[in-house]
């Protein structure tokens, strides 16, 4: 549980973060989205005291973050940044072991943890343990960067545009992997992004920021359905709102009885994908497949019902 | 290059013969000095020179240059022994301009071939070691004992080794002190941007003072320290002598050390530094585990610059009684005895050259360890 209360940061009298109050429940992903200069990164960096607040408080699991020296606080919080920030002179294992080493774990425990994380991030430990960062692809570096942030098993993970440097295909995969790992580990994540699609895809809650203020902090459905002001609306792109709503639900959630022809769609696919497929292949309905069996169909009418303002 | 060598081979004298140290030398060409074997030498060297013009494999070229240099070295020694009458301690034979020119031509061609071979750092150190071993072998074999430079050495062997020690102490000591003071100063400049301009500016001014002027300028304050601070005189601190020489070399070393440290630290990837902070390294851990290791190749480059510069510059210390190989150089100049000048200059050049090769290899190795290359 992260509780941020009346948190402000002033530089030369100008408020970069202005009186922000929000809470992130355990195991949730909070996405902070905003344009550049909105104060989103500063807000994130105040949580691990890379930036010291001008006023206000932050509590993690009820404990004020000012209660301990910054370096001790940071060892308990995962931190992953854009461009991964791997140490170029250390191999993959040593990079991942950074925080456990700082915490003084014994060697065997560190080695076991490194292998466990490499496996979790689909990097064969034998092959990757002793590679240097420059011998990795962009996607692999990013995965090692997140593995390093999770090495000491932190309850909270802060991510600053973690997928910003990846191309769209690798980014989509990285986002899914992150969701998967987060569900398994139950880590509470605060993630900064400028990409509303990414925020909607990853966030249980989204905080939309501009000029240092949080304009709206709510679940994605609510942000799309009822944007608090024109800025939030602009961030959503008003023309895309119906499709964004569709992207929140899966075909499996809208499945109904009845027959349909042609190639089936998986139950995990979003309604946005299902609707696009119907338009493309001139069909009124698609068969829905779950675990290899057809479980029903999803229709254009069902999609359209989901896409209208609630 | 071959043309230069050819001029050296045919036109200019191979050796100079003097009945004693002071008289005008008598120039002798190779065949005049060595007779029939001299003609053979000229023929072989001529072929070697001609081969430099045609395009050959680099390794062949290198072997030709190495062989030619070895041949030159051996025959110049033989020529000296042949020319000097048995038991004559006054006659002097020195290598003539022809020898030097040919040695220069082959050394240049050899170095060029070596550079183009693109050897790995450790292999370069190996080549250096074998060249130095060869040189030592020739010196110990006594082949060159009749050449003037070694004649000078024989008459002052004790002084030579003593001054060589002083020379090394001056050069390496000043570098050591510059590392001990310069690296921390560089870290301060990096951490506190406000003092950076001031420190680097001051050191820049020091660097622009001509070296002889700096040695001179230090005489007065050092003399004062020696006279007025208890214990200073006992350490040998005085207006002249090794103390001002040491201080001057140290002062020159400081700017490259500080600025290379700053540049190296500035060059550490921003996101690596940021990640180190964000993961909970203390400032000290960040400095020793991230910043200094990543800045190390640039700092080592600074050490290389300073060490090579100091080995050369320490010669000037001879001028203010600081000792070192410069002693022979300045003695030789005042006595117009060229061999004596060479006795001081050649070891200094060889040491500077060796230091440059070793540290360059070190810089390359330290870079290869982390990234980009490959």
Automatic annotation (TrEMBL), chain A:
Q: Which domain of life is it from?
A: Bacteria
Task: Cite the entry's keywords alphabetically.
Answer: ATP-binding, Nucleotide-binding, Transport
Q: Does the keyword Plastid apply?
A: no
Any one GO BP annotation for this protein: quaternary ammonium group transport
Matching entries from InterPro entries are given as: AAA+_ATPase, ABC_transporter-like_ATP-bd, ABC_transporter-like_CS, P-loop_NTPase
Kindly indicate whether the keyword Chaperone belongs to this entry.
no
Tell me which PROSITE patterns the record gives: ABC_TRANSPORTER_1, ABC_TRANSPORTER_2
Q: Name one Pfam family in it.
A: ABC_tran
The record's annotation in SMART domains points to: AAA
MF annotations from Gene Ontology: ATP binding; ATP hydrolysis activity
Q: Which Gene3D superfamilies match?
A: P-loop containing nucleotide triphosphate hydrolases
* Annotated ranges, domain ABC transporter: 2-236
Provide the family line.
Belongs to the ABC transporter superfamily.
**Entries under PANTHER family matching the protein:** OSMOPROTECTANT IMPORT ATP-BINDING PROTEIN OSMV
Protein name, per record: Osmoprotectant transport system ATP-binding protein
Q: What organism does this protein naturally occur in?
A: Pelagibacterium luteolum
From TrEMBL, chain B:
Compartments where located: Cell membrane
Q: Which residues cross the membrane?
A: 37-55, 62-84, 90-110, 122-144, 164-190, 202-225, 231-255, 287-307, 313-333, 340-359
Q: Which GO terms describe its biological process?
A: glycine betaine transport; transmembrane transport
Membrane topology summary: Multi-pass membrane protein
Q: Which key words are in the record?
A: Membrane, Transmembrane, Transmembrane helix, Transport
Q: Does the keyword Plastid apply?
A: no
Where does the ABC transmembrane type-1 domain start and stop, copy by copy?
Answer: 164-359
Show the Pfam families listed in the entry. BPD_transp_1
InterPro entries xref list: ABC_transp_perm/SBD, MetI-like, MetI-like_sf
A single GO CC term for this protein reads:
plasma membrane
Give the matching Gene3D superfamilies: MetI-like
What family name appears in the similarity comment? Belongs to the binding-protein-dependent transport system permease family.
PANTHER family named among the record's database cross-references:
GLYCINE BETAINE UPTAKE SYSTEM PERMEASE PROTEIN YEHY, GLYCINE BETAINE/L-PROLINE TRANSPORT SYSTEM PERMEASE PROTEIN PROW
Name of the protein in question: Osmoprotectant transport system permease protein
Origin species, per record, is Pelagibacterium luteolum
